[in-house]
Request: fold
Amino acid sequence: MEASSDITVLSALLPFVAIVFIITIGVVLLNLQFKKNIYKQQLLNEELKNKHQLDLLQTSIAVQEGERKRIAENLHDELGAILSISRMRMVQMEGDIGDGEHCETIAEIRSYIETSIASMRRISHELIPPQLEQFGLVPTLESITEQLSKTKKITVTLSSNDYLPELSWTIQLGVFRVLMEFLNNTIKHANASEIHIDLSGDKNDLWCLYRDNGIGLPEHIPLNGLGFRNIEGRINALEGQLTIGGSKAAGFTASIQIPLK
Reply:
């Protein structure tokens, strides 16, 4: 009788034990699913945050370039026209006066105006290089490297493969700005005699390798300085990769990889 009673109690408890076990398993699975969902949400939030930061960066650079273009056009169309008219007037006055009393003064003023015109054109071209819009990245870089080499203070060589893909204006402008920053740093600080720029690419990526034989990265030009932050910002806006290296023995090197979409 006692054994039969124990079996009856055990039989009665088994469903409850099974229910508790199922509930426990369910709670564990729900907890795991909850943690998994939280992790997925964290990844999504991080992705959205990175996407938002990228959008802000790209918008910021686009606004900067738009402002550069506006200023360059105003300089060329308004200030350039005024200076050109003033120069023409000075030339006319020189002809009217001849060797008169104020001839040297007028000639001096004309010289100042011509210097201002040259400075205005240089600033305008630096803001938005007309060659880049008209001819593209490689021809513009070829022209710049040729001009620098003519100074005989530094030799700049540019090489690009014959299969370089067609590049969007955004990529051309971004790479151009970065390379101009590198060239400016080399000329000002590196005490280099040679610069090499290699461009290559395929349908998926554009690669750019910049090298000089200077003194490497001086201690007073940190990688977190304004110039390098601008470079990193432009590369990040293009969703590219930037690798910087160099030493006193090997000079400065920078490798850039940009995906082509």
